[in-house]
Every structure is written in C-alpha cells, then in structure tokens.
Design brief:
By secondary structure, the protein is α+β, with helices and mostly antiparallel strands. Among the domains are: 99 residues, Phage tail proteins - horseshoe like beta roll fold (Roll); 121 residues, 3-Layer(bab) Sandwich (Phage tail protein beta-alpha-beta fold); 70 residues, Baseplate protein-like domains - 2 layer sandwich fold (Phage tail proteins - 2 layer sandwich fold, 2-Layer Sandwich). It is built from nine helices and 24 strands. Helix 3 packs antiparallel against helix 7. The longest helix is centred in the last third of the chain and has 19 residues.
Length: 430
C-alpha cells in the first residue's frame, strides 16, 4: 500500500516517511530537524486529509518504527510518538510526530543507583543504552560514512566505517550551480580549499577520549541521558547521536576540520545567480560569554591530603573589548593543570557557542557540492563557507543543526557555529 496524497514537487526536495510496508509522500507540510548538540532528531508532519489520517493511525499506532528520507537519502530511524488532530465541520488537519532511536535513551529513568566501574566512554555508552533500552548496539567513533549516507553521497558502507579522505583542491562545478554564478563559486572554492585542514584529526581525538577509563555513578531518579550520560560525555568533550539506519550510535566530536562542502552567499543589494541565502540572522550576545574561566580542582598536598589546584583561560575577544566577567568552576575530578586548562577552554567555547551563531534559510533541501557539483542533502556535522556582506562574515562555519520545512514553501534552515568554538575532546582531557 502506498499513500500519496500529492506527488507534486521536485524529487530533490521530497520527504518520504516509511512505516512498515507503506510509504507516505509528505507534501502538505512538515518540520524535520537534526542536530549534533541538539538531540534527538525529530519530525512533525501535517496531514490535511482526515480519511488518510484515520487509515494511517488505525494501522500504525504510536511506537511504530519509521524511517525518514529526504531526496531519497535516509536521514534517521526511530519510533512515532503520536498525533494531534484539529478541525471543523468541513475539514480536519492532523499533525503526526516522531523521534529517532536516541529518544528511548532520553526518555528512560534510572531505577536504582548504579556504578559503572573502570569503563571507557565507549563501554559506558554501550552499557547505558543497554540498561535504558534493553538492547545491545554498536558504538562507532567515526561519523564519515553516516554523514555521507545522510547527505545522499554514500551508496554503502557500514556505520562508522573509516573512509580515506583524499586531499586536493576544491574545483567549481560546471554551469551556474543552479543559483551560484561560476565566477563567484570558483573564488569561494579557492578560499575554502585554503581554509580547510585534515578531517581525521577530530576522529583521532574522539578515539583517544573514548578509550579513557573512569568510574561513574548513576543516581536513581535521574534520566539516563540528561541526568547522567550527557554530564559524563560533556566532561570528556564527547557527543553521541544515532546513525541514519538506527543500528548504531556515533560517539565522537564535531568535525570542524573538514573541507567546506558548500558555499552560503548573501550580498548587499544583489539577487539572482550569485546569492543563495534567502534570509539570515547573526547573533553575537556578550551576555552569555565570559572574559575568563578559572577552574579549581583537587590535587595532592599536605593539608588533609589534598590541596586546590587551578587553571585559567582568558577569552581574548572579550578582553580586547574591555569585558570583565570571569567564571569560576569547582571540579573535584580535575586533578592536574592540563585537565583544568582544558576544562577552562571548553567552558569558554561553550559560552561562545551559546552567544555567537549564524542562522540562515535557503531554498529547497539539496545543493551542489563545491568539490564536484554533485547534489547533496544539507546535513549536520559538515562545514560550509559563508560570505555574508551584510554582517561582514567570511570564512568556514560548522553546521550544527538542519531544519527541513514546507509551510508552504520548501526551505532548509541551517544553524551554524564558528570553527574556533568547537573545542571538545583533546589530549589534555584524557
């Protein structure tokens, strides 16, 4: 059985929901969101046909497994949460919701205190997921294969599979890149190539951090994720998200060292084939930032067998503008200056990510890649090159979150972070 209330729309922008043996081509309206730091991935689909909704929900009640495809690229897998209907005597509109497989971990509560003794972070994530969901899973520390799958650029390869990245200049594709002029595209491509670094550095840091051993206590009444696991992963500078097929979890760090895959251009007083940003918002809010961070940890000493150790990191951007807003942190698990310095740097970076971001909206859900011109779906954990004349922004930015919408225009909203604010797992942390 195939539900197709409407088949209009470019195949590059189509959103497909797979439920069991059935497929629902969504054309009425939707909001699909995925992120690196914002988990779990979720969808909200609007069904304008009351009869279709009754048939659909009778056959597939809440907690039905689903898969979301965008432009024929598998985005994520999970379980439906339910629906909400509203209508009049003449029409009914139903909103259908679901989240990816990570939602089960987010929802689960710890029933009794439990100590995870001498565990690596990879072992910890595996154990916590099994305790929370009752299911064993695969933990990967490399996101390349999953990223390519979500972008529609990878025909195969298992979750977390290592892919050797060939370095080389980014070349502009032929034609006008469907909205980007060839000349400006070549300029952007050259600059992006010069700004890029080795993408495997992030994976190496993640592997090292994931293999560091520690003992961690989970307390009854807390949620497995928000109350326990996330705090422990934050300490190590690690993130976890589900793969597109829902068969594995990626435990890694945001990879800001990739070569930019796309260019986002907004120019003053121009339109047409040299711009692709429909609208943009730039936030630089100093109220969320700190001039410096002081970490007070614990180390060996004479007084009661312990003494206080400290480390300080100063944000040069805040200092140069005359801000004096220090933050002081006590962390009993911080036992040396290297760990303290890393925690201070990470705290400043977290504050900067909250205070500085760039959000923009583009048409459709796909784009021609800078390197080859091959079409790809906008995807988190990628890097793009931004040239926004109005805000004076030029350089590589990290794609933290992607939102696909039709209301009724088909657009994609991208939430971007500065590359220099992606301070996560490092040697000092482990």
């Amino acid at each position: 059985m195939r539900y197709e209330p409407n088949t209009r729309g470019d195949v590059n922008d189509r959103v497909r929901l797979v439920l069991g043996d059935d497929e629902l081509l969504i054309t009425e309206g939707y909001d699909v969101r995925q992120g690196v730091l914002t988990q779990p991935a979720a969808f909200s689909l609007r069904l304008g046909h009351g009869g279709l909704a009754r048939e659909l929900f009778a056959k597939y009640p809440p907690r039905t497994k689903f898969q979301i495809y965008i432009a024929e690229a598998l985005r994520f897998t999970g379980w439906t949460d339910g629906f909400r209907g509203a209508g009049t005597s003449g029409a009914t509109e139903v909103t259908f919701n679901g989240r990816d497989v990570l939602a089960r971990l987010h929802d689960a509560y710890i029933r009794a205190d439990k100590t995870y003794k001498d565990r690596t972070y990879g072992d910890l994530v595996f154990s916590v997921i099994k305790d929370a969901t009752g299911e064993a899973t695969v933990i990967a520390t490399e996101n390349t294969a999953n990223r390519l799958t979500q972008a529609g650029l990878n025909a195969g390869g298992g979750a977390g599979a290592s892919i050797v990245k060939k370095r080389g200049p980014i070349v502009a594709p032929t034609g006008n890149q469907e909205g980007l002029g060839l000349a400006i595209t070549q300029i952007i491509a050259d600059k992006a190539a010069a700004a890029s670094a080795d993408a495997l550095q992030a994976s190496a840091a993640a592997n090292k951090a994931a293999n560091a051993k520690s003992t961690m206590l989970a307390k009854a009444g807390d949620r497995y994720y928000d109350g326990f696991l996330k705090k422990e992963l934050d300490r190590a500078g690690l993130c976890v998200w589900a793969t597109a097929d829902g068969e594995a979890y990626v435990l890694t760090v945001p990879d800001g060292n990739q070569a930019p895959i796309a260019a986002l251009i907004r120019r003053r007083g121009t339109s047409g084939n040299i711009v692709n940003v429909l609208s943009a918002t730039y936030t630089n809010d100093t109220s969320k930032r700190f001039s410096e961070c002081v970490v007070l940890g614990r180390g060996g000493g004479k007084k009661s067998g312990r003494t206080t150790s400290s480390a300080t990191y100063t944000d040069p951007e805040m200092v140069v503008h005359g801000f004096d807003r220090p933050k002081v942190i006590r962390d009993a698990k911080c036992s040396n200056a290297a760990q303290g310095e890393y925690l201070a740097r990470r705290t400043i970076a977290e504050a900067n990510r909250a205070g500085i971001n760039y959000t923009c909206t583009v048409a459709g859900h796909t784009f021609p890649t800078l390197r080859t011109g091959e079409r790809a779906v906008w995807t988190p954990d990628t890097v793009v090159y931004v040239q926004d004349d109005e805000f004076g922004i030029e350089g590589p930015w990290y794609v933290e979150q992607v939102g696909f919408r039709r209301q009724p225009q088909t657009t994609t909203e991208l939430t971007l972070l500065r590359i220099q604010d992606l301070i996560f797992a490092e040697d000092a942390a482990v």
